[in-house]
């Protein structure tokens, strides 16, 4: 099935990724088409209309997509994380209802970040409260990937003594979605600010009244997101390896191909090593995810940290080799350079990943 899904993504993207990046938009029918085939959240269980891919195969599909278009891969990450949130925190009826929608072409964004809560999600101030048979959601979420396309915003917030998730229709009264203008990278991923002003919904839209602190709930959701972003970075690295190998093998300076200049060859060697180590870290984390090992949490952070750093350095290196050939808007390596830098910021920045890894190392040492 993985080969068929990869072929479908290749065929769908075709040569459009550059145009999507320049325009800052992926046509909605493309996203709905892939969504309705289950490709955007391919791990969802067949019982709920999904394809039931393993985490490892879904990772390979995510890397394949990331090599073609990081904006589309970002949509895949959000949709997959939304599906995982419903699966993890929803009851049976909610899984049937919402996973059915997400595998049927409806699109979802996942909203943690706020103006005062980026790295520090414990500072989140969005509130979800009950009022009679309804829930009411108030808050502002920033930089929410896919929000500009989404039918659903999966909103994390404070609820009574802990946290909860509200499934908010993007068209509900009190919801205002405003596109982030001119983002640095993943330009067609539909980033937006989402303002929620007294949004009233039936209580069936409330997930996870478990008493868990909101930051613990975000960690559970982000384990999926981190692994997905990590695989996306593997895709960026693969696209860079291919572009550098092709260009440096063909372009001649000083009477021979660039690749025969050892300082250029070193760039390719380092890129290749970066792609391989990121892949190994992702494969190890996906195996932990697939077996339900508790190692999946630190392994996903490790994979994300290694893959994002490697992708940012690797894309810079690829741009150095392609030089003026890649220095125009939307070129695959120019996109990689911008997109990869943002991967060091999101889903737990480099520094936040380092803090988590240091804590893990300290707790497991000796
Ligand atoms: C392209 C893109 C897509 C995004 N998509 C989503 C989305 O779909 N959903 C969502 O909820 N959010 C999303 N975000 C928001 C993203 O999660 C935040 O940008 C990220 O968590 C960092 O928060 P911040 O930008 O507020 O930076 P800050 O938290 O202000 O951090 C600024 C800098 O300080 C460092 N820093 C902060 N605290 C510490 C510390 N304790 N120790 C050391 N260094 C520290 C950070 O690493 C960073 O380098 C997205 C952002 C971008 C750019």
From TrEMBL:
GO terms for molecular function: acyl-CoA dehydrogenase activity; flavin adenine dinucleotide binding. It comes from the Bacteria. Residues 3-106 form the Acyl-CoA dehydrogenase/oxidase N-terminal domain. Its cofactor is FAD. It holds the Pfam family Acyl-CoA_dh_1. The keyword Nucleus does not apply. SUPFAM superfamilies: Acyl-CoA dehydrogenase C-terminal domain-like, Acyl-CoA dehydrogenase NM domain-like. GO terms for biological process: butyrate catabolic process; fatty acid beta-oxidation using acyl-CoA dehydrogenase. Residues 215-360 form the Acyl-CoA dehydrogenase/oxidase C-terminal domain. Residues 109-199 form the Acyl-CoA oxidase/dehydrogenase middle domain. InterPro entries: Acyl-CoA_Oxase/DH_mid-dom, Acyl-CoA_Oxase/DH_mid-dom_sf, AcylCo_DH-like_C, AcylCo_DH/oxidase_C, AcylCoA_DH/ox_N, AcylCoA_DH/ox_N_sf, AcylCoA_DH/oxidase_NM_dom_sf. The keyword Oxidoreductase applies. Keywords: FAD, Flavoprotein, Oxidoreductase. PANTHER family: ACYL-COA DEHYDROGENASE, ISOVALERYL-COA DEHYDROGENASE, MITOCHONDRIAL-RELATED. Belongs to the acyl-CoA dehydrogenase family. This is Methoxymalonate biosynthesis protein.
């Amino acid at each position: 099935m993985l080969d068929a899904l990869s072929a479908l993504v290749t065929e769908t993207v075709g040569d459009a990724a550059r145009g999507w990046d320049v325009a800052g938009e992926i046509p909605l029918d493309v996203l709905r088409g892939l969504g309705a085939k289950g490709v955007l959240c391919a791990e969802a269980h067949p019982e709920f209309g999904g394809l039931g891919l393993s985490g490892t195969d879904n990772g390979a599909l995510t890397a394949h997509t990331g090599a073609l278009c990081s904006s589309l891969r970002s949509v895949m990450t959000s949709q997959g994380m939304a599906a995982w949130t419903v699966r993890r925190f929803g009851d049976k009826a909610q899984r049937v209802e919402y996973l059915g929608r997400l595998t049927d072409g409806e699109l979802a964004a996942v909203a943690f970040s706020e103006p005062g809560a980026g790295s520090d999600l414990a500072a989140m101030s969005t509130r979800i409260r009950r009022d009679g048979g309804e829930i009411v959601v108030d808050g502002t979420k920033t930089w929410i990937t896919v929000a500009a396309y989404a039918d659903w915003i999966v909103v994390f917030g404070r609820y009574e003594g802990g946290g909860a998730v509200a499934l908010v229709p993007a068209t509900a009264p009190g919801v205002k979605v405003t596109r982030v203008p001119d983002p640095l990278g993943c330009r067609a991923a539909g980033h937006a600010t989402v303002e929620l002003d007294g949004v009233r919904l039936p209580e069936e839209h409330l997930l996870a009244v478990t008493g868990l602190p909101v930051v613990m709930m975000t960690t559970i959701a982000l384990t999926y997101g981190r692994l997905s972003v990590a695989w996306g970075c593997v895709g960026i690295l693969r696209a860079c390896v291919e572009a550098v190998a092709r260009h440096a093998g063909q372009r001649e300076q000083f009477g021979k191909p660039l690749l025969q200049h050892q300082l250029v060859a070193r760039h390719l060697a380092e890129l290749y090593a970066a792609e391989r180590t990121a892949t190994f870290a992702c494969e190890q984390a996906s195996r932990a995810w697939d077996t339900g090992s508790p190692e999946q949490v630190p392994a996903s952070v490790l994979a994300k940290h290694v893959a994002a750093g490697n992708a940012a350095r690797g894309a810079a290196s690829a741009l150095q080799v392609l030089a003026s050939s890649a220095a125009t808007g939307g070129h695959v390596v120019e996109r990689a350079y911008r997109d990869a830098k943002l991967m060091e910021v999101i889903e737990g920045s480099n520094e936040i990943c380092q803090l988590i890894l240091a804590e893990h190392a300290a707790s497991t040492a000796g």
